[in-house]
From TrEMBL:
Predominant subcellular localization, coarse grouping: nucleus
Keyword line: mRNA processing, mRNA splicing, Nucleus, Phosphoprotein, Repeat, Spliceosome
Subcellular location: Nucleus speckle
GO cellular component terms listed in the entry, alphabetical order: nuclear speck; post-mRNA release spliceosomal complex; precatalytic spliceosome; Prp19 complex; U2-type catalytic step 2 spliceosome
Domain Pre-mRNA-splicing factor Syf1/CRNKL1-like C-terminal HAT-repeats: 90-380, 402-553
A Pfam family hit: HAT_Syf1_CNRKL1_C
Keyword match Nucleotide-binding: no
Domain of life according to the entry: Eukaryota
Gene name in the database record: Crnkl1
Chain residue ranges for the region called Disordered: 1-26, 681-701
Protein name (Swiss-Prot/TrEMBL): Crooked neck-like protein 1
Keyword Nucleus: yes
Length: 701
C-alpha cells in the first residue's frame, strides 16, 4: 500500500513536470518605461503585411502537359476568386484578359458574357469587351457589342463616342452618321451635337452641319429652360467661317429677338458687333453697342464697355470717344451712389458729368435722385454738403435751363424741407431773394427775407437784407432793419458801428453820436475796444477834441490798458495846438503813475519806450535825461516749476524788469545793488594782485 502511494506520487509529479514548462524567472517586476499598446501591435502587424515578399520562383514550361496543367491551375484559381466574390468585376476582367492573352477569344468572350449577366450596368465591362473585339479585328462582334451597349445604357456618352469613332476609322461614314442620328434622338448634351457637326465638317458637308445647328437651336428652344448664348454665337461663327455672311447676320438677329430685353447678355452683343466690324459696317456696330449699353444693367456690361471703347478708338471720331468715356464714368458714379446714397461728393461729381453732356430731363432726374437722399439726422453739420445739391439744382434751372418757375419751385421746396426750428441756412434765403430781384420781383424778395428773419433770425440774414436795401437806397427801411437787428443782437459791435456810419453818411451827426452812446452803454459787447475806437475816430473826424478827451477819460475809467494811454497821448500830440506837447507829456506822466502798480511789467516798459520816442523827437535835454533815468533794468531770474500733479518739474529762467522808481521805495533793492558793487570791486582787486607788472606800469604812467 505504501509502495502504491509513492508510485502515484511520483507519477503525478512526472505529469506536473510535463504540463508546466519552465519559465525564466523575472527579477524586476516593475512596469517598463515604454509601454506598448494593442493599437501599436496591430499597426505594426499591418505594416509588415505590406513588406515585399520574395518573388515566386520562375517556372519553365517544357511540354504540352505542363502547359495544360498550368492552364488548369490558373483557371481554377480564377474560378475560385469569382465564386468567392461574384460581384467584383475586376476579377472577371482579369480572367478574360488572361484568356485573351492566351488567344482563347471564345473563352474570353464567354467570361465577358457571364460577367454581363452579373452586372450589365458596369461601363468598364462593356468598354473592355468591345476593345477586345476591336483589338482582335472582330468588327461585327464589336458592332454587336456597341449596339447592345447603347441600347442598354443610352445615356453613357462614352459608348456613342467610341462607336462613332470606330465606324469612322473603318471608313463607314454612312454607318457613323446613322449612329449619330440614333444618338441625337436621345437629345444628348451640347458636346454631342458639336461632335456631330464637326464630323460633318470633316467631310465638307456644310449643308448637313447647318441643318444640325438648326435642329440643335430648336432643341434648346423647346427643351432647355435657360438656353445659352454661346450656342447661337457658335452657329453664327460657323456661317461666318464658311462665308455665309447673310446667314450669320440672320442668326445674330434671331438670337437678339429670342433673348429679348429680359435676358440680354453682353457676350451676344459683343460677338454681333465684332461680326459687323469685320464686315466694315461701322454704323451698325455703333448702333448695336449703344442699344446694348442702354438696356443691359451697368454691372453686367463691363466687357461691353471695354470693347465699345476699343472700337471707338479704332474707328470713331473724338465725339464718339468722349461719349464712351462719359458712359463709363457715369457707370462708375452710379455704382458709388448706389453703394452709399449719402455720399454727396459722389453726387456732385456725377451731376457735373451729367450737366456737361446730357439733356435737361436727364439732369433733372439725377438732381431729383440726389436731393431725395435727405440726411437722416437733423444736425447742421450733416446738412452742410446736402444743401449745396439744392443750390446747384436751382442755379442749373436758372442759368442753364432758363426755367424761372422751376427755379422758384426748387428754392421753395428747399426752404420747406429745412427744419428752421433747429437750424437754418442763411445762404438759401439770400440766394432766393437775389433770384427774385433778378426776376424784378422785389415784393417776393422782401417777403422771403422778412419770413427768414421772423422764422430764424441770424446775423447774416440781417446783414444781407440791410445790404439789399442799401443798394436800393431805402434808408428808412435800413434804419428799421438796424433797429430790429440790434434788438436781436445788442452785443454785436459791428452792427452798432455800421448803423452809426450809415447815419454819418446821411449827415445826421446827432443820431450817429446817440447810437454810439447807446452802444457803449450796453452791459455786454463782443468787441468793445473796436466800438470805442470807432467812436473816438468819429469824434476826431468831427474835430470835437474836447469830446474826444472826455471819451478817452471815460474809457480810462473802465480800463487802464497801455494802448489806451498811448493812443490818448498820440491824440494830444496830433491835435496840432501850442499846448499839445505839454498835454502829451502830462498824459505820459499820468499813465506812468497809474501803471506803477500794474502786474504786467511789459506794458509799463512799452509805455516808457513810447514816452522815450516822444522825448527824443520833441523833448529837451532835461526831459530826455529824466526819461532815461526812468527806464528799467533787465535782469535774468529763475523760478521753480511744478507739474500738474504737484511734483517738482525743475527750474525755469525768465527776464524781469526793475524800475528805478520802485528801487527808491524798496531798501532791499538798494542793499542788493551795494552787494553787487562790492563784488565787482573784489573781482578787480583780485585781478590786480595776480598781475603786478600791470600795477607798476600803471604807477609809472
Amino acid at each position: 500500500r505504501g509502495h502504491r502511494g509513492e508510485a502515484a506520487k511520483m507519477a503525478s509529479t512526472a505529469a506536473g513536470k510535463q504540463r508546466i514548462p519552465k519559465v525564466a524567472k523575472v527579477k524586476n517586476k516593475a512596469p517598463a518605461e515604454v509601454q506598448i499598446t494593442a493599437e501599436q501591435l496591430l499597426r505594426e502587424a499591418k505594416e509588415r503585411e505590406l513588406e515585399l515578399l520574395p518573388p515566386p520562383p520562375q517556372q519553365k514550361i517544357t511540354d504540352v502537359e505542363e502547359l495544360n496543367d498550368y492552364k488548369l491551375r490558373k483557371r481554377k484559381t480564377f474560378e475560385d476568386n469569382i465564386r468567392k466574390n461574384r460581384t467584383v468585376i475586376s476579377n472577371w476582367i482579369k480572367y478574360a484578359q488572361w484568356e485573351e492573352s492566351l488567344k482563347e477569344i471564345h473563352r474570353a468572350r464567354s467570361i465577358y458574357e457571364r460577367a454581363l449577366d452579373v452586372d450589365y450596368r458596369n461601363v468598364t465591362l462593356w468598354l473592355k469587351y468591345a476593345e477586345m473585339e476591336m483589338k482582335n479585328r472582330q468588327v461585327n462582334h464589336a458592332r454587336n457589342i456597341w449596339d447592345r451597349a447603347i441600347t442598354t445604357l443610352p445615356r453613357v456618352n462614352q459608348f456613342w463616342y467610341k462607336y462613332t469613332y470606330m465606324e469612322e476609322m473603318l471608313g463607314n461614314v454612312a454607318g457613323s452618321r446613322q449612329v449619330f442620328e440614333r444618338w441625337m434622338e436621345w437629345q444628348p448634351e451640347e458636346q454631342a451635337w458639336h461632335s456631330y457637326i464637326n464630323f460633318e465638317l470633316r467631310y465638307k458637308e456644310v449643308d448637313r452641319a447647318r441643318s444640325i445647328y438648326e435642329r440643335y437651336i430648336l432643341f434648346t428652344l423647346l427643351v432647355i429652360v435657360h438656353p445659352d448664348v454661346k450656342n447661337w454665337i457658335k452657329y453664327a461663327r460657323f456661317e461666318e467661317k464658311h462665308s455665309y455672311f447673310a446667314h450669320a447676320r440672320k442668326v445674330y438677329e434671331r438670337a437678339v429677338e429670342f433673348f429679348g430685353e429680359e435676358h440680354m447678355n453682353e457676350h451676344l452683343y459683343v460677338a454681333f458687333a465684332k461680326f459687323e466690324e469685320n464686315q466694315k459696317e461701322f454704323e451698325r456696330v455703333r448702333v448695336i453697342y449703344k442699344y446694348a449699353l442702354d438696356r443691359i444693367p451697368k454691372q453686367d456690361a463691363q466687357n461691353l464697355f471695354k470693347n465699345y471703347t476699343i472700337f471707338e478708338k479704332k474707328f470713331g471720331d473724338r465725339r464718339g470717344i468722349e461719349d464712351i468715356i462719359v458712359s463709363k464714368r457715369r457707370f462708375q458714379y452710379e455704382e458709388e451712389v448706389k453703394a452709399n446714397p449719402h455720399n454727396y461728393d459722389a453726387w456732385f461729381d456725377y451731376l457735373r458729368l451729367v450737366e456737361s453732356d446730357a439733356d435737361a430731363d436727364t439732369v433733372r432726374e439725377v438732381y431729383e435722385r440726389a436731393i431725395a437722399n435727405v440726411p437722416p439726422i437733423q444736425e447742421k453739420r450733416h446738412w452742410k454738403r446736402y444743401i449745396y445739391l439744392w443750390i446747384n439744382y436751382a442755379l442749373y434751372e436758372e442759368l442753364e435751363a432758363k426755367a424761372s418757375n422751376r427755379t422758384r419751385q426748387v428754392y421753395q421746396a428747399c426752404i420747406e424741407l429745412i427744419p428752421h426750428k433747429k437750424f437754418t441756412f442763411a445762404k438759401i434765403w439770400l440766394l432766393y431773394a437775389q433770384f427774385e430781384i433778378r426776376q424784378k420781383n422785389l415784393p417776393l424778395a422782401r417777403r422771403a427775407l422778412g419770413t427768414s428773419i421772423g422764422k430764424c433770425p441770424k446775423n447774416k440774414l440781417f446783414k444781407g437784407y440791410i445790404e439789399l436795401e442799401l443798394q436800393l437806397r431805402e434808408f428808412d427801411r435800413c434804419r428799421k432793419l438796424y433797429e430790429k437787428f440790434l434788438e436781436f443782437a445788442p452785443e454785436n459791435c459791428t452792427s452798432w458801428i455800421k448803423f452809426a456810419e450809415l447815419e454819418t453818411i446821411l449827415g445826421d451827426i446827432d443820431r450817429a453820436r446817440a447810437i454810439y452812446e447807446l452802444a457803449i452803454s450796453q452791459p455786454r459787447l463782443d468787441m468793445p475796444e473796436v466800438l470805442w475806437k470807432s467812436y473816438i475816430d468819429f469824434e476826431i473826424e468831427q474835430e470835437e477834441y474836447e469830446k474826444t478827451r472826455n471819451l478817452y477819460r471815460r474809457l480810462l475809467q473802465r480800463t487802464q490798458h497801455v494802448k489806451v494811454w498811448i493812443s490818448f497821448a498820440q491824440f494830444e500830440l496830433s491835435a496840432g495846438k501850442e499846448e499839445s506837447l505839454p498835454r502829451c507829456r502830462q498824459i505820459y506822466e499820468e499813465a506812468n503813475k497809474a501803471m506803477r502798480n500794474c502786474e504786467e511789467k511789459e506794458e509799463r516798459v512799452m509805455l516808457l519806450e513810447s514816452w522815450r520816442n516822444f522825448e527824443e523827437e520833441f523833448g529837451t535835454d532835461t526831459t530826455k535825461e529824466r526819461i532815461v533815468k526812468l527806464m528799467p533794468e533787465k535782469i535774468k531770474k529763475r523760478r521753480k516749476l511744478q507739474a500738474e500733479d504737484g511734483s517738482d518739474a525743475g527750474w525755469e529762467e525768465y527776464y524781469d524788469y526793475i524800475f528805478p522808481e520802485d528801487t527808491a521805495n524798496q531798501p532791499n533793492l538798494k542793499l542788493l545793488a551795494m552787494a553787487k558793487l562790492w563784488k565787482k570791486q573784489q573781482q578787480e582787486s583780485e585781478a590786480a594782485e595776480m598781475d603786478p607788472d600791470k600795477d607798476i606800469d600803471e604807477s609809472e604812467s
